[in-house]
Amino acid sequence: MTGQVQTTLRSPEAFSLARRAVEEMEAAHVWPTPLNFELWVHYLGEPEGPLGQEMRRLLADGTVFSEGTSEMLAAEYLPRGRLSEEIRDAGAVLNRELSTVSEAIAKAQQSQAAYGQTLAGASAHLETASEPTALLGVVSKLTKATTQVQAENATLERRLESSTKEVARLREHLEQVRRDAMTDALTNLANRKAFDEELLRACDEADKKRQPMTLAVLDIDHFKRFNDTWGHQTGDQVLRYVASVIGRVSKAPRVAARYGGEEFAVIFPGESAAVVEAALNSIRVEIGARALRRRSTNDELGAVTISAGLAQRQPGESGADLLGRADEALYASKRAGRNKVTNGERLAEAA
Ligand code: C2E
């Protein structure tokens, strides 16, 4: 939660903010789920913040606030309380493991030092001892000290082994948390945050390797109409279906992401516009070829189509400019009647 909203929620305006959030959700025909409530409180508490601006844009566009849309907004804009908690917990476990191991090592060092002293003492005794009983005493002392050091070593080994396992488990868990934070929960594609980072990285790499790179944006045609007719749950399934086709065609090093409500984006490192145009057309044809059914009633939903636009990066071009050109190409597809792929390079030639 941002500082400003947090302060408001502990001030006399808190109740009026909460009431307005409920009223505005009702006006926008949005269910007052805890997540939506959190989104609306943030939006109204800080209307000029990044979440406020994005929500105003979506509401003005008439975007349907399905569960998927809300989750995506939350992942992108709400403070990551869960993530920081997980990291804090992992940090505490790691600290505990490190202290256990350091204690065990310190103890083992003490034992080794004591053992060294025992050995030194024994060797001095051996030089002077002539009686068999005195020799026996030295040997028995040595045996006892050796047994003790062996036991300490065995304990240290066990502790190290269990700590190694715990640290490996922790590492795996943190890796999962990191993956979750970069993944769109509904479609399992990369989320917008991951995409933005990946776009920067890919632009850098394209410059370093002096290789081409192409960016595509894809949008489901008439998705709002579809959602209004069949409901949000079915709308979410359509998003998953489109994402599954895009994901299958976009194996690494390609990176596919859900970029907005019903908008997707794919980075094609090392690929030229002509190759990408063909790939997008095969995605478009595959998506449109399937007659979908509504799972709950088995009603025929018909086919869904997508429009797409692509732009090949010019050397040194920023990710934002490239995205802008791919978006222009997408809108050209929409203007030309949808269910189309527009190659932005041709758009530029024609201009
Ligand atoms: P899901 O329902 O979790 O299905 C995952 C995958 O299981 C599907 O991947 C498909 O390979 C298989 N599958 C599930 N149900 C059926 C079925 O009735 N027949 C066949 N032959 N295979 C099935 P796929 O096709 O890539 O779809 C991904 C997601 O897209 C699905 O996830 C679902 O959310 C959505 N979707 C796909 N087709 C339809 C559809 O006709 N109606 C609805 N409502 N959603 C669909």
TrEMBL record:
Indicate whether Ribonucleoprotein appears among the record's keywords: no
Name the GO terms of the biological process aspect: cell adhesion involved in single-species biofilm formation; negative regulation of bacterial-type flagellum-dependent cell motility
Q: What is its EC number?
A: 2.7.7.65
Which PROSITE patterns does the UniProt entry name for this protein? GGDEF
Enumerate the UniProt keywords alphabetically: Coiled coil
Catalysed transformations (reactions): 2 GTP = 3',3'-c-di-GMP + 2 diphosphate
Record GO terms (molecular function): diguanylate cyclase activity
Coiled coil region boundaries: 146-180
Cellular component GO terms, alphabetical: plasma membrane
Q: Which NCBIfam families match?
A: GGDEF
Protein known as: diguanylate cyclase
Give the species: Brevundimonas subvibrioides
